[in-house]
Structures are given as structure tokens and as C-alpha cells.
Amino acid sequence: MDNIDYQRPASVDEAIRLAQQPGTAFIGGGTNLLDLMKGGVARPMRLLDVTRLPGREIAQLPDGGLRLGAGVPNSDAANHRLVRERYPLLARALLSGASAQLRNMATVGGNLMQRTRCSYFTDTGFGACNKREPGSGCAAIGGFNRMHAILGTSEACIATHPSDMCVALAALRATVRVRGAQGERTIPMTEFHRLPAARPELDTVLQPGELIVSVDLPASRFAQRHAYLKLRDRASFAFALVSVAAALDERDGAVADAALALGGVAHKPWRVLAAEQALVGRPLSEASIADATSLLLDGARGFGHNDFKIELARRAVARALAQAHTGTA
Amino acid sequence: MSDPLDDADRAVRHPHPALPAPTRRGFLKSAGAATGALATALPGTPAAAAPAAPTMPPPPRPAPPPRRITLTINGARHELMVEARVTLLDALREHLALYGTKKGCDRGQCGACTVLVDGRRINSCLTLAVMQEDRAITTIEGLGQPGALHAMQAAFIEHDAFQCGYCTPGQICSAVALVQEARDGQASAVTADLRQPAVLDDDEIRERMSGNLCRCGAYPNIVKAVRVVATIRPIA
Fold first, then answer.
1. Which residues pair with B222 in a beta bridge?
2. b vs e for A27-61, b when ≥16 Cβ sit within 10 Å of the residue's Cβ?
3. Any chain A CB within 8 A of the CB of B207?
4. Closest approach of chain B CAs to the CA of A103, in angstroms?
């Protein structure tokens, strides 16, 4: 690993000020950043340790929502009483990710910032990766792309975002609160991560030096009927081939509101408002699920090894919605 | 500092206590040295024969100087000089000679380096030593020693929960934390009802131990050892 400088800012303001220097990275749990640094993929010159800053609390918001401090470890978020009561879909997604050790380390903010596990990105032995070396090409297109994206891809990049937590947050309509030199702003979860387009080196819309402060969840009616379905190559401790966050608010036999997002299929959590709307106003049925799935997977395209993901996603959505309808705990 | 597992090996296996006992660590060191000598002596294996990387490696950076830090490990305070890039795992092994914590993948994928920090299990390969100042670090050496084993260590021996033993310190640290997490009401991905306390059946134990790989495949007996401690014995 490269030699680095290390600083422990005493406040969020100081962290933001120090982060204006080029070559600076924030470190939270470090589980992804240090891994990438060992591989020579990330090469910051200076780390700002933000794990001792305020922001490790989970607090109720006046509107009935919940604020997750960016420094809250994933395991604490998953096991917090209010998360389990009000947002069990989020708890399920968190618990399906990584291992107990990694969940103890990884933070809410760091989870948002984790980078793709595309092996052409993480292995510098491969020369072509537009995400790692802009302009160098994409070895995954035409390479071994079993884990790769089927939606929102570009000619420059077919990487997926690896997070489970973010899929649930997108479905639950969370927002991300960030602070930088220009002040504070709030970004809807669905707009926080980018599609690769021509700039796959940019995962998110964060500006240099901006720090995630919290993730805010709005009041939710999805605590009763929800499912996080994660399909992967082994039963635990593996990234998703396809995952589905599904939740239903059902009243008088009809769906009053629906939340639906996919993981493992795109450069960001994949949520399509029209697909959710297709479920609303009628009882959940094979027909409504088929309508929603068509809209959700509209434009899906495989790259050879990952062609199977299109059908896998279709069936996973149907199963997750059926599980949500049945009601899980 | 002596290696408790070496001590255990010596106590059990060395038939001539009057003679200097061979240790596993001593053997590995001498075997490694011999292999290294052999490799350099063989013709046709110079470094130049290694496949060329597609891009030239970046030049090394000027080194920020090492810094003095204090780590609290197994109840004792240790002062050491480390560069900021040194992981907790490397600090334990290379600076403090606490070899019980093992380096497997060094990338957070195998769990061999699992230690407890403020009672929580983490992968010591994916955190920096400088980040762990003022925290209580517990390694396998701190859980128990020969003659005064932790209940989980004793259970692993009793139920034959290892073959080569390399993943075992991480497995045991992980398992000790698992029992406490379950008592604290933490759920797992296979917990049927998030509103009820989980019952540590075999499915729960497997899921909660999934961050610790065992290439020998001792999983059935690891699960058994964890189940016995979790359900019968009070944990120290």
C-alpha cells in the first residue's frame, strides 16, 4: 500500500476544510477504501478519519422519519429498534450484505460510497477500465461479465453498484444529506449515484470535498409488507447477482403504494417510478406484477455471460412482491 | 512474547522436554528461509521473467514519518512506532509479535484476522492501527491461554472444530462475538422475525459465521462447538 498521511479532524467543519486539498479521502470503516488501496486502485495521499466525528446517532425526525448518522455502523443501523420496527426492509437489506465483521466496521456513509466489485476495475493487472483509468476502455464488455449490469449501461462501462443497503434506501425514498465548502444540500437517494454514461469514473454526484452527514428516511407505510430478496452464488457473504427490495402498502384489498428497486443490475440502485405506479390502485396480481416488471426491466440488455440476469430479475421481482404481499417480519 | 499455540504444541507433542523444543513458528521460519534460498539459486527464475504489467507501476511516494501510537491490547498498553498505512493486523503481528491473529487473504474476505475491538468483531486487515487508538483490542491471546482456555477455545478442541488450525483464532474470536451479539438481541439475515429474539440454531450459526472461511471444511464441527457454547455454557 502507498505511504499515506493520516489526520483526525476534530469537527465536521475541519474535515471539510482539510478535504479541499487534492489527494484527500475520507475514511470511515475503511473496508472498501483500504481494500482498494492495497490493490493500488485507490491512491489517496491523505486520509481524514471521520469515525470520531459526531454523526454516529440514529434520531427521530419531526415528520415521523428517521435520521441515520453517516458514521453509524451498518450492524448498528440494522439492529436499531426503530429501524427494525419502521424500516424492516432496510434492516433486511443491511443484514444480507457482507459479513458480521464487515457490518461492524462499514458505516452508512461508507456504504453509499463503496465502489464496484467489477474485477476489471479492482485488478490493476487489466489495462482497460474506464472507471479506473478514464479513456482506457472497458474489458468487461466482451470479457467475463457474469456479475455485470443489464440496465443503464454505456459503451464505456457495465459495472454494477454492489450495495444492498442502497437498494432498500432507494425503494424507501431516502435522501442523502451532504456538507461541503458551499454549505449543506440534500440529494434524493435515487439521484445520488450516477449512470456511467461517458464518465464512469464518477460513481456519485458528490462534489470533491463534500462529506455525507446523514441519510434521512421519510415516514413509511412499508413496515408490514416488505421483502428483500437477494440471489447470489453462495448462501451468504457474496454480492448479489440480482436483488429486489419490494414493499407494499395495501388497503381494502388494493395496493395503495408500492416500493420497488433492484440491486446488482445497474451502476446504481434501479428504481422506476412507472413500475411502482403500475402496481398501485389495483389488487396485486400476476397481471399487475407483469406490468410492473416490464416497466422496471424496459431496455434491459445482456452482454453474454450475464444474459441470464434479465430472466432472473423478472422472476425475482415476482417472488419478492409475492413475499411482500404475504407479509414478512 | 511466546506463541501460545507453539507452547501448546510443545507441551503436547514434544517427547523430550529436556531438549530445546522445536516450534511450529521456528520450523516455518527455517522452511521459508530454505525455500527462499532455493528459489534464488535456481536458474531461469529471475524477477525479470515475471509477466510485465500493462502499465508501469507508479513511483514510490516520499514517506511521511512513522508516528508513535498507543494501542490497548488484551488489557495491556503498547507503545509502537508505525507508519499510518500499517493495518491493525500487521501492527499485531509484525510490531507486537502477537502471532495468534492470522493473515489469510488480507482483503477482508476470509476472517482469519478477526479480532474484537470494544467487544465487536472486526477484520483487523481492513483497519489502520492508527485508527484504533484508545480502543480495547482483544486478540485470541487475550481470550484464553493454555491452562486457562476460554470456553469457546475449549469447545473447539473438544469438538474437533479444526484441522490445520490456521483460520481457528479468527473463527474463535468471531464465535465469541456471535454469542454476545445474539444475547444482545442482534438479528441475522436468516432470523425469521425481526421482532423476536433469534434462537441460535445451526442455520443462524452458519449465517453468523459466514465471514470466517475454513479451507479444511471443518464447518460441521465449528457449528457444533459454537452451538454448545451458545446454548449450554455461560460465556466468560
1. none
2. bbbbbbbbbbbbebbbebebbbbbbebebbebeee
3. yes
4. 8
Count of A-B CB contacts under 8 Å:
130
> In this complex, do A35 and B83 lie within 8 Å of one another by their Cβ atoms?
no
Instruction: For residue B150, give every residue at least 6 positions away whose Cβ sits within 8 Å of its Cβ, in sequence order, or none.
Output: B143, B144, B172, B176, B236
Distance CA B197, CA B126 (A): 30
Is the backbone of residue B18 left (phi > 0), alpha (psi -120 to 50) or beta?
A: alpha
Q: What totals of helices (H) and strands (E) does chain B contain, helices first?
A: 8, 5
CA dihedral A214, A220, A226, A229 (to 10 degrees): -20
Work out the minimum CA distance from B157 to partner chain A, whole angstroms. 24
As a whole number of angstroms, the distance between CA B207 and CA B191 comes to 10
Q: Mutate which of B105, B107, B131, B191 to test chain A, going by most A C-beta atoms within 10 A? A: B131
Nearest to residue B66, comparing CAs of A26, A27, A5?
A5
Give dist(CA A85, CA A62) in Å, integer: 17
| Angle, CA of A199, A202 and A203, to the nearest 5° | 125
Query: Are B188 and A102 a contacting pair at CB < 8 A?
Result: no
Q: What angle do CA A175, A177, A181 make, to 5 degrees?
A: 150
Q: What is the DSSP letter of A311?
A: H
Facing residue for A2 by CB, picked from B61, B106, B121: B61
- In the block, cell 442502497 appears at A166
Closest residue, chain A, to B54 (C-alpha): A127
User: Which contacts (CB < 8 Å, 24+ apart) does range B55-59 have?
Assistant: B55/A124, B55/A127, B55/A133, B57/A40, B58/A40, B58/A43
Residue A18, strand partner residues: none
User: What is the predicted ipTM?
Assistant: 0.97
d(CA A149, CA A266): 5
Nearest residue, CB atoms, A4 vs list B85, B181, B193: B85
Listed as own residue / partner, the contacts of A76-81 with beta carbons closer than 8 Å and 24 or more positions apart are: A77/A108, A77/A165, A78/A103, A78/B186, A78/B187, A79/B184, A79/B185, A79/B186, A79/B187
Query: What residues pair up with A177 in beta bridges, in sequence order?
Result: A186, A214
Tell me which chain B residues have a C-beta less than 8 angstroms from the C-beta of A78: 186-187
Using alpha carbons only, give the angle A274, A276, A280 rounded to the nearest 5 degrees: 105
Question: Would an 8 Å CB–CB cutoff place B52 in contact with chain A?
Answer: no
Judging contacts by C-beta atoms under 8 Å, the chain B residues touching residue A133 are: 55
pLDDT at A99 over 80: yes
Q: What angle do CA A306, A310, A314 make, to 5 degrees?
A: 145
Q: How far is A251 from chain B (nearest CA, A)?
A: 23
Q: Provide, as residue numbers in chain A, all residues whose Cβ is less than 8 Å from the Cβ of B185.
A: 79
Residues of A in contact with B54 (CB under 8 A): 125-127
A177 vs B9: which has the higher pLDDT: A177
**Neighbouring residues of B136: CB distance < 8 A, sequence distance ≥ 6:** B72, B75, B117, B118, B119
Which pLDDT tens digit goes with each residue over A76-97?
999 999 999 999 999 999 999 9
pLDDT reported for residue B232: 72
Instruction: Inspect the interface and report whether the beta carbons of A27 and B131 lie closer than 8 Å.
Output: yes
Q: How confident is the model at residue B62 (pLDDT cuts 50, 70, 90)?
A: confident
